[in-house]
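Give me C-alpha cells for this 160-residue protein.
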Amino acid sequence: MRNEGMKELEKNRREIQLQKFLDHHYIRDATLAGIGPGRRAMLASYGIDTAADVSWQSLEKVDGIGTRNAVTLVTWRDSLVSRFVFNPRLGIDRTEIVKLDRRIEERRSQLEQTLTAGVTVLEQIRRRIVDARTSLQAENKQALLALLQAEEDMRSAKRK
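Here you go.
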C-alpha cells in the first residue's frame, strides 16, 4: 500500500508543488476588486482562505458571492498558476509522506478493529452453533428413545 502511495505522490509532484504554492497566497493579502473585508470573512467561513481553496465548485457553495466576484477570484488564482514554476529537482514533500503514512496507519487501525470485532462475532456464532447442536442432540435422543419404545411396543403387541 505504501509503495503504491509513494508512486502516486511521485506522479503528482507537480500538482502537489502547485497546491503548496497556491496555499501560500492568502485572499486576505491580495488586492481584489469587490472583495473587501466582509466578503473575505464570508469566504473564510466557507473554508476559502488561500488561492488553493479557490475553484468554481468551492465558490458555488458561497451564498451571495456573485458571478463577478467569483470571476475575480478565479482570475486571481489563474494568474498565480501562470506564475508557478515546477521544480523537478525537489523530491516528494515530507509532509505528503507523513500524510500518506497517517492514512496507512488509520487504515491499518480500522482493519485491526474489524478483525478484533470479527473474533467476537465468530465466538458468538460458535456459541449459538454449540447451543443449537446441544439442543438438537437432546431432541434426537428423545426421538430415538421414542422410536425404540415404539418398536418395543410393536414387538410386544405382535407377541400377544
